[in-house]
Amino acid sequence: MSRINLSFFKICLFFLTIASYGQEVAPSIMIKARVKDNKILLRWAVTTPIEWQKTNSKGFRLNKILIKKNGVLIEDAPKQSIAILKPLPLEQWMEVVQKDSYAVIIAQSLYGESFEVEENKSNELSRIMNIAEELSQRHTFALFAADMSFSGAKMAGWGYEDTEVKPDESYIYQVEAIDMPEVASAATMIGLSDREPLSTITDFYALPADKKVLFSWGIEWLKNTYTSYNIECSTDGKTFSSVTETPIVDLNSDAQHNSKQQFFTAPLENNEQTYYFRIYGIDAFGEKGPPSKAITVKGIPVAQATPKILDYHFLKGDKVSIEWEYPKEEEKNCTHFELLHSENDKSYRTVVLKIAINTRKLTYKNLKPSNYFKISAVDKQGKSHLSQSVLVQPSDTIPPKKPTGLEGKIDSLGYVVLKWKANTEADLAGYRLLRANTKNEEFTDVFNDLILTNEARDTVSFSISNPKVYYRVLAEDRRYNRSDISDILEIVKPDKNPPTAPIFKNYEMTDKGVKLFWVNSSNEDVKQHLLLRKDKDGTWKILKTFTKPTTEFTDETAENGQTYQYLIQAEDLSGLKSTTEFSMLTLTVVKSTTIKALRSAEALADRSDKHITLVWKYEPSHKITELHIYKNKKGAKPSLWKVLSGATTSVIDKDIAPNNDYEYILMPSISGQFPVKSEKVSVKY
Description:
By secondary structure, the protein is mainly β. The protein contains seven helices and 46 strands. It is 9% helix and 42% strand. Strands 3, 4, 5, 7 and 8 form a five-stranded antiparallel sheet that branches. Strands 18, 19, 21, 22 and 23 form a five-stranded antiparallel sheet that branches. A four-stranded antiparallel sheet has the order 12-11-14-15, with no helix packed on it. A hairpin with a 4-residue loop joins strand 24 and strand 25 (415-419). Helix 1 (8-20) packs across helix 6 and helix 4 packs antiparallel against helix 6. The chain is flat and about 115 Å long. It starts with 7 loop residues before the first helix and ends with a strand. Residues 1-23 and 117-122 have low confidence and may be disordered. InterPro entries: FN3_dom (IPR003961), FN3_sf (IPR036116), Ig-like_fold (IPR013783).
């Protein structure tokens, strides 16, 4: 035995091998048990290829424990080794492999010098299979073939029949790999009373087509029972034969996807014969389940001809009469005709349903300006066979109405956005946009094409000296009738040049705050001046907007000791703003008067309760807004510790350590942003 030649099983190998690749599986033994007649059948398998190969030489030990008798549980029941199982020598397989093709696969996986599947080298499936290691192929084929042949599994040491069983007893069977502790053993409990009949497949369905049929049945609840299925066919409902040489297996389920439904397609010799089909499952011990109820199937022929529209005639009342031809002999393969309509020969919809199959003429009303028609012959499989399209256009000389409501604007980059009120004509094809640089010159088509919506975008050049641009719109229908041109829209081009920049000329520190002085922009189209300040958070905020020619302002919100940037900027009627390069001023607020707001302050150490209490009093003549307390160990840099409201006059510090000198700096703030004198207190803890 040197090579195995299979076509069906190479497909199975592909799915099973690829499904297992890249998954870390702990080596273990999986076991199944079933009662048949007065015997208990056992089947097992090793999950990983390397350990599977090792067990083929070292073998398995099958242990048996009598766990229950006459319904009574037996405590401390002894374990009995009933078999040591290994694959039979190659020469003992020769007779079996002549009759059992699955036994051939098992023997090849055990003793074959090589284990390759013959394949078409240009086939992508074959290319992927060649990547799989030979050991994985042997393991996968062996497990599959053992599921299909219980006699082969027993010869390989992967199955066992126990006849030493009694009806009133239950047993635990344990399978372990000899001298391989790294392989987890497996066990199962069963008795003769546990016999269960195999399930009948009840949801077996067929979908007939032309000389073939698609079968489907649910497999989700059968996966623990059956490993394969067999579909049988009969022409008289009595004598059945299998439709395939090998059983049907689930090739779509893997660790990531669990198939719930199985599908299989079988050919039919002709469409006239009535066929009977049934299905049964085969379990891992080779036992066949009961066949399902037979279902009848008859092929459904496909129509071979398509309709052809011959002619059409306009009738009164916006109607058209359409005539077509279709072979009389093809009528038996179809159920009816349908009329399809489109206004653009692209997207069709069915407008007349269920036209009798012997009809060749009909009348259709509610015509559009452009009408494309097709006739569809619907066969008994529900497939549509379409004729070529025919264009039907009624006469039309009435133009659309004149467009109204035209409006638009130009931005600083020269982009123009235009819109107008949409026309409501059913046969409207679109609009044309016309433009002129002066009101009296001839308008020209901007795009030389139709605009399909009531909006348009254009661009204008600022290099042309005309300060305004003019637009008009006309509507056009599908018969090329054009409306009157809309009224003229005049749009002023925006100013592209920003105003000259205002500049600061001086500032003063006053009791109220920082007083700023500047020179305004000299442009006549300036709409307003903006005074901005960049605070300590780094963002520019508008302090004041001046629409009148003001040249000074006092910032009363500036805080003493803070550094600010001020910006004065001009904005014209077009929204353009002056440059900022020479319009900024940076200064630090300095108010010379220092106010004493604290009357007293002291720090008290309480070593028994482990905290320091700070208490203070304010001068009653000042309204304190808040108090900042900075803290440090003596000799270290102070850092902000607390921010308290002006109503608070004491605080406790528990974040302290023994044998340290602590310093606290109290800095109150008062209304009016005046500088206030701070107080420092020290305490030894």
